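Quick one: HNH endonuclease from Devosia aurantiaca, C-alpha cells please.
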Amino acid sequence: MALKVLKPKLTKLPPRLATPRERRDMKYSPDATVRGWYHSTRWQKLRQAVIERDLYTCQHTGVILTGKAPAPTSPVVHHKVPHKGDEQLFWDINNLEAVSKEWHDSEAQREERGLHR
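--- reply ---
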C-alpha cells in the first residue's frame, strides 16, 4: 500500500510589520479612499487655489512660502478642523489654509495629537 501525501495545515501569515508611514496612515485614516483624495487632480487644484488665495504666506507665522518640499518654507495646505474622513469637510475651501511645512510638522501635529488624547 502506497503512502498518501498530506496537504500542509499551516499557511503563510500576513506581514505584521508596517513602515512608520503605513502605521500613521492606518491610525489617521484607515479608509484608503480618504488617503487617495490627497493624490487626486481635484485636490491638487484645490491646494493650489488655497495657496494662491493666501498669497503664498503661512497663515500662522507670516513666512513667505517659497520652498520646495521638504524645505521648511514649502507650502502645506492644512485643514483647520480635522476632517476625520468627512468628505464635505475635506473639500471645504473655507476649512483650508496655507501654512509652512515647518509649522505644520510641529505645531499643527502637536495640536492634532492633543485632540486625539
